[in-house]
C-alpha cells in the first residue's frame, strides 16, 4: 500500500545544479547608451569641469591662469553685473509671458479650429527657422526703425506713452530700448512656445469639451476648468523652452538694444571674447546656470505638472 | 426629485433631420419619449441613432425640425442650458479631476457651494464611495462607467442620454451594468434615452425600442411587439432571426389570410400582416425559428389540424445544449432555421431526414414582399 502513496524518486537526485543560462543581451542596454554617454562626456561634462576650474583660477593672459580656488571671483562678478542679471530675468520673463499670450490662442486655433488649414499654419509657424537667426533679428531693426510705420502707429495709438512710463522705451524711439529687445526675444522664441502648447492641446479629447458643455459649463468655463488645466504640460514646457534660452540670449540685446539693455549673455560674451577675463566669464556662466536651475525647479514644483497625465 | 406627473421629462422631436452636405444622417423624424420611460434607439453603426441623441443633447444642430423637452422648445439652446445630461461613449471623464470632482462638476457649474453631501450620496448609489479621491485612470472600465452615470445623474436632468454606455465593457460586466442601469432608472424615475447597437441590451432594458436603419425609424414599440410582430424585414432580421417564405394570397376573409406557397397552404392572421393583402398579390410570410416544431415525415399524420406546415429535408443540425438548431431545405425556402428545445429528442432527426415543419398560425407574420428578405442580416451580426 505504502508504495502507492510514495512519491516517485527525483529523476536525477545527485545531478549538479545546472548553471543558470547566461542571459544574452544583458549588456545591450549599456552598449546602446554608450554613444550618447560618450557624447555627453566629451561635449558636456568635460567642458563643464573645464569651465568650473577656469572660474576659480587667477592670473592674467600674459602670465597664464592657475587654479587658486579663488571663489571671490563669483562674488565680484555678481556684485559687478547684478543689473544685467536682473535685466536678463526681466526681459526673458516678459518675453515668455508675451509668447504665452500670443502663442496660446494660436496653438488653440491650430489644435481645434484650423480644420484643413492646420498644416499650412503649422508650416507658417516653423517657416522662419529656414532663415538665419541673425537675419531674422536684423529684420526687426528695419521693422522698428525710427520714424517707420510701426513706431509711427504705436506713437499715434499712444502705446509709446505707456511703454515710456514703464521705462520700456525712451521718447519716440523703440530701437535701442528694452522694448525692442523684448520684441526680438518674443519673436525669436515664439515657435518654442507654440509647438509644445499645440502638442498638448491637440492631445485633449474633444469629447471632454462636449462633456463639460453637457454639464452646464459655458465655453469660457470649459476653457478654465478643462482645457487649460489639461494643457498645463504644454504651458510648462513651452515657458521653459522660451525662458531658458531667452535668459541666456545676447544676440537680441546686441542687435536691437543699446548699452543700457545689456543682458548677462552680452557680459559673458564680452568677458570671454573681448576682455579675455576667462575666470569672470566662467563664473558668470555658472551663476546664470544655477539661477535658471533654481527658478525652473521652483516653477515646476509650483505648477505641479507631475500630477498631470 | 422629478414628479411623475410632470410632463417636463417628455422628449418630443418633430420633423427633426440632420444632413451633412449631400449625406442625410437622419431623415425627418417624429418621436415622442414619454416622461419616466426607458427608451432605446437601436440600430447598426451609421444608422443615425447617435446623431439623434446628440441633437437632443444639443451637441449637434438639427438641419430641420424642433426638439421639445416637455413644453419647452430647446432647439436653439446650447448644451449647457439644456436640462439633459449625457453618459458618453467611453465616458469622457475629466482626467485631471478626481472622481469626487468629476461627479461634482455639474453641480459646481450651477453655482452650488456645498456639494459634499450630494456627491457622497451619489457615489454611494453607484457603489464608489471608497474611490472618491482616485483619478479616473486608476479605476476599472466598469467603475469608470458608473462614475460617468453618477456624474450625469447627480444633476437630476429631465432626460438622461446614454450613448452606447456599455460598449467598452466585457460581456459579463455588460449584463451586470444593464441590470444596474435599469435599477437606477426605476429608482430615480428619470427619462432615459439609450443608444445601442446591441439588440439584447435594448430588449432587456427598454420599455420602448425604436429600431433605426439608414436615418429612419423602421419600427417603434415594446420589445415583445417588435420581436413577435416585426413590420419590416430589417426589424425581423436585426432583432433575432426570421425565416421568410414568399407566398401568394389565395383568399382573404377579413380575419385570416390564406396563402399559397409551393402547393401548400399557410394561414396568417390579418392583424399580423403589415402589407396590403389582395387576392393574387405577394406577401412575405415570416416565422421565428423557435416557434416551429419538427416532425419526422413518417409521423406527419400526428400533427394536429390547423397548423401551418411545410415539408423539407434537414440539411444541417447543431447541438448546443439547451436546444438543437436545424437548417432545413424546403421547396419554398432554402435554409429554414428551426430551434428545437431538447426535451424529447427524436433520434431520426438527423441531416438528410425528411421532415414536416409546423407551427401555430398565430405566430406567423406577413410583410410587404417588395423588400429585401435579407435586410438587416449583416447589421445584426
From TrEMBL, chain A:
Record Pfam families: BPD_transp_1 (PF00528)
Keyword Thylakoid appears in the UniProt entry: no
InterPro entries for the chain: MetI-like (IPR000515), MetI-like_sf (IPR035906)
Domain ABC transmembrane type-1: 85-299
Gene3D superfamilies: MetI-like
Stretches with biased composition (Pro residues): 7-18
The entry's keywords: Cell membrane, Membrane, Transmembrane, Transmembrane helix, Transport
Membrane-spanning parts: 30-50, 89-112, 119-139, 175-198, 226-247, 281-300
Superkingdom as given in the UniProt entry: Bacteria
Compartments (UniProt record): Cell membrane
Start and end residues of each stretch annotated as Disordered: 1-23
Membrane topology term: Multi-pass membrane protein
Family, as annotated: Belongs to the binding-protein-dependent transport system permease family. CysTW subfamily.
Annotated protein name in UniProt: ABC transporter permease
Amino acid at each position: 500500500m505504502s508504495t502507492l502513496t510514495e512519491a516517485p524518486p527525483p529523476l536525477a537526485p545527485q545531478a549538479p545544479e545546472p548553471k543558470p543560462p547566461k542571459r544574452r543581451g544583458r549588456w545591450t542596454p549599456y552598449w546602446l547608451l554608450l554613444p550618447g554617454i560618450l557624447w555627453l562626456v566629451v561635449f558636456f561634462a568635460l567642458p563643464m569641469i573645464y569651465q568650473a576650474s577656469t572660474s576659480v583660477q587667477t592670473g592674467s593672459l600674459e602670465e597664464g591662469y592657475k587654479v587658486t580656488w579663488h571663489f571671490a571671483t563669483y562674488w565680484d562678478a555678481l556684485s559687478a553685473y547684478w543689473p544685467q542679471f536682473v535685466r536678463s530675468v526681466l526681459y526673458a520673463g516678459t518675453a515668455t509671458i508675451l509668447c504665452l499670450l500670443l502663442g496660446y490662442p494660436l496653438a488653440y486655433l491650430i489644435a481645434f479650429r484650423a480644420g484643413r488649414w492646420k498644416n499650412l499654419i503649422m508650416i507658417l509657424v516653423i517657416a522662419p527657422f529656414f532663415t538665419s537667426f541673425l537675419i531674422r533679428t536684423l529684420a526687426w531693426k528695419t521693422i522698428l526703425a525710427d520714424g517707420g510705420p510701426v513706431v509711427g502707429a504705436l506713437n499715434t495709438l499712444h502705446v509709446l506713452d505707456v511703454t515710456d512710463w514703464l521705462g520700456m522705451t525712451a521718447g519716440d524711439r523703440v530701437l535701442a530700448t528694452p522694448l525692442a529687445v523684448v520684441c526680438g526675444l518674443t519673436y525669436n522664441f515664439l515657435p518654442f512656445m507654440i509647438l509644445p502648447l499645440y502638442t498638448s492641446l491637440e492631445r485633449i479629447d474633444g469629447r471632454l469639451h462636449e462633456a463639460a458643455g453637457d454639464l452646464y459649463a459655458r465655453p469660457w468655463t470649459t476653457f478654465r476648468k478643462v482645457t487649460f488645466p489639461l494643457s498645463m504640460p504644454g504651458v510648462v514646457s513651452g515657458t521653459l523652452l522660451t525662458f531658458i534660452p531667452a535668459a541666456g540670449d545676447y544676440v537680441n540685446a546686441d542687435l536691437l538694444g543699446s548699452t543700457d539693455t545689456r543682458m548677462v549673455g552680452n557680459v559673458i560674451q564680452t568677458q570671454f571674447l573681448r576682455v579675455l577675463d576667462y575666470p569672470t566669464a566662467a563664473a558668470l556662466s555658472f551663476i546664470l546656470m544655477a539661477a535658471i536651475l533654481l527658478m525652473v525647479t521652483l516653477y515646476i514644483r509650483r505648477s505641479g505638472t507631475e500630477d498631470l497625465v | 426629485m422629478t414628479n411623475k406627473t410632470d410632463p417636463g421629462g417628455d422628449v418630443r422631436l418633430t420633423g427633426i433631420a440632420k444632413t451633412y452636405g449631400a449625406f442625410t444622417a437622419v431623415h425627418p423624424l417624429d418621436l415622442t419619449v414619454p416622461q419616466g420611460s426607458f427608451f432605446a434607439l437601436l440600430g447598426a453603426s451609421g444608422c443615425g441613432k447617435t446623431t439623434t441623441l446628440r441633437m437632443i443633447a444639443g451637441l449637434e444642430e438639427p438641419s430641420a425640425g424642433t426638439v421639445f423637452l416637455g413644453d419647452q422648445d430647446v432647439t436653439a439652446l446650447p448644451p449647457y442650458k439644456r436640462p439633459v445630461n449625457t453618459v458618453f461613449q467611453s465616458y469622457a471623464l475629466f482626467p485631471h479631476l478626481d472622481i469626487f470632482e468629476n461627479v461634482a462638476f455639474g453641480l459646481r457649474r450651477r453655482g452650488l457651494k456645498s456639494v459634499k453631501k450630494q456627491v457622497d450620496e451619489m457615489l454611494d448609489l453607484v457603489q464608489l464611495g471608497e474611490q472618491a479621491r482616485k483619478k479616473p485612470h486608476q479605476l476599472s472600465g466598469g467603475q469608470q462607467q458608473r462614475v460617468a452615470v453618477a456624474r450625469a445623474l447627480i444633476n437630476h436632468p429631465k432626460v438622461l442620454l446614454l450613448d452606447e454606455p456599455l460598449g467598452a465593457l466585457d460581456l459579463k460586466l455588460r449584463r451586470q451594468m444593464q441590470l444596474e442601469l435599469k435599477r437606477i432608472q426605476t429608482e430615480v424615475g428619470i427619462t432615459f434615452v439609450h443608444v445601442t447597437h446591441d439588440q439584447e441590451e435594448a430588449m432587456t432594458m427598454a420599455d420602448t425600442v425604436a429600431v433605426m436603419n439608414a436615418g429612419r425609424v423602421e419600427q417603434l414599440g415594446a420589445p415583445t411587439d417588435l420581436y413577435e410582430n416585426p413590420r419590416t424585414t430589417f426589424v425581423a432580421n436585426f432583432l433575432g432571426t426570421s425565416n421568410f417564405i414568399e407566398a401568394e394570397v389565395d383568399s382573404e376573409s377579413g380575419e385570416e389570410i390564406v396563402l399559397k406557397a409551393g402547393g401548400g397552404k399557410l394561414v396568417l392572421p390579418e392583424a399580423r400582416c403589415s402589407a396590403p393583402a389582395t387576392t393574387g398579390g405577394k406577401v412575405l410570410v415570416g416565422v421565428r425559428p423557435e416557434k416551429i416544431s419538427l416532425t419526422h415525415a413518417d409521423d406527419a399524420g400526428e400533427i394536429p389540424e390547423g397548423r401551418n406546415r411545410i415539408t423539407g429535408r434537414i440539411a444541417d443540425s447543431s447541438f448546443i445544449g439547451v436546444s438543437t438548431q436545424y437548417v432545413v431545405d424546403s421547396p419554398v425556402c432554402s435554409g429554414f432555421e428551426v430551434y428545437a428545445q431538447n426535451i424529447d429528442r427524436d433520434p431520426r432527426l438527423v441531416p438528410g431526414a425528411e421532415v414536416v415543419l409546423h407551427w401555430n398560425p398565430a405566430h406567423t407574420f406577413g410583410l410587404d414582399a417588395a423588400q429585401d428578405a435579407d435586410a438587416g442580416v449583416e447589421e445584426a451580426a
